[in-house]
Design a protein that fits this description.
The chain is α/β, with parallel strands linked by helices. Helix content is 41%, strand content 18%. The termini are far apart.
């Protein structure tokens, strides 16, 4: 059974995530008390219609029960259930904006208390930090459009996430901020920029003309050779360490040309070696 525990910051997109997982045939349970995790896993296995893909949301809405999170994980392990933790994060200022727009009460805002949204977010971060450190998948939704959450779930879970290392290749623009979930970040703003070529400016790194332009320069050839060699060297080390996910982020100024071309190159290289990889061009559609 593929058992995914979805958790993270309130307002980071857990509801949309669970909807996206349901769309790709996960049996989903929202707002599950953490003490019931072993029981729901057991019931899904014993059901006459055996559930092979299960996702449950456990978060700070569980109140005091959330303190039992690691106890329940240990019980799952002792009963032979394997699981993955998917943690959703988001920048504080974006969380504040989302709460103001939705006008919903933060789950840690107790009745009668005069806590601000900022104080609730800080308190929740402190509560969830140990869980975040244990997460197998960390998704930062700060710069995500609504549709991108579903794209991420499809990328992560339509493959077999139980086997080996998944390399998530992300392109981004530094002007929009670096992805906080990245394990390795590479800055390619030093390479020749197609933005200054009038015929290429409105294209992207997925277009052949831009890709050819980016890759033709001696600077890019030198970078690419060393970059690919380093990734090939590092991957077995991460696999031996037992890491289940490696996030490699490549950034240029706007996240539309150089970073996209080189991220796509890395993704295609990994696929040619029959490694498990996903690709996501975070800022490709931004102006």
């Amino acid at each position: 059974m593929e058992f995914v525990i979805v958790t993270g910051m309130s307002g980071a997109g857990k509801s949309r995530t669970i909807n996206a997982l349901e769309d790709i045939d996960f049996y989903c349970v929202d707002n599950m008390p953490v003490r019931l995790l072993p029981k729901i896993a057991e019931l899904c296995i014993e059901s006459s219609k055996k559930k092979t893909r299960v996702a449950v949301v456990c978060d700070s809405r569980g109140g005091e029960f959330f303190n039992d999170f690691f106890v329940s994980l240990e019980e799952l392990k002792n009963q032979g259930f394997q699981y993955k933790i998917l943690f959703l994060d988001c920048a504080d200022n974006v969380l504040i904006k989302r709460y103001k727009e939705s006008r919903r009460k933060h789950p840690l805002m107790e009745e009668g208390e005069n806590m601000s949204i900022e104080e609730c977010i800080l308190k929740e971060r402190e509560l969830l930090n140990p869980v975040k450190q244990r997460a197998d998948f960390l998704i930062d939704t700060t710069f995500f459009a609504v549709t991108q959450i579903k794209e991420q779930m499809v990328s992560l879970f339509l493959g077999d996430v139980k086997l080996g290392l998944t390399v998530r290749c992300i392109s981004f623009g530094f002007k929009y901020g670096s992805p906080s979930e990245a394990d390795l970040v590479f800055d390619v703003r030093c390479l020749p920029n197609p933005f200054y070529v009038e015929t290429l400016r409105h294209l992207t790194g997925l277009d052949e003309e831009v890709r050819d332009y980016v890759l033709k320069w001696p600077q890019t050839m030198g970078f690419t050779e060393r970059f690919i060699d380093m990734i090939d060297y590092l991957l077995p080390l991460y696999i031996n360490e037992g890491k289940s996910q490696l996030v490699v982020a490549i950034g240029c100024t706007g996240g539309k040309h150089r970073s996209v071309a080189l991220t796509q190159l890395l993704f295609e290289h990994l696929m040619s070696k029959e490694l498990k990889a996903t690709v996501h061009h975070r800022d490709i559609s931004k102006l």
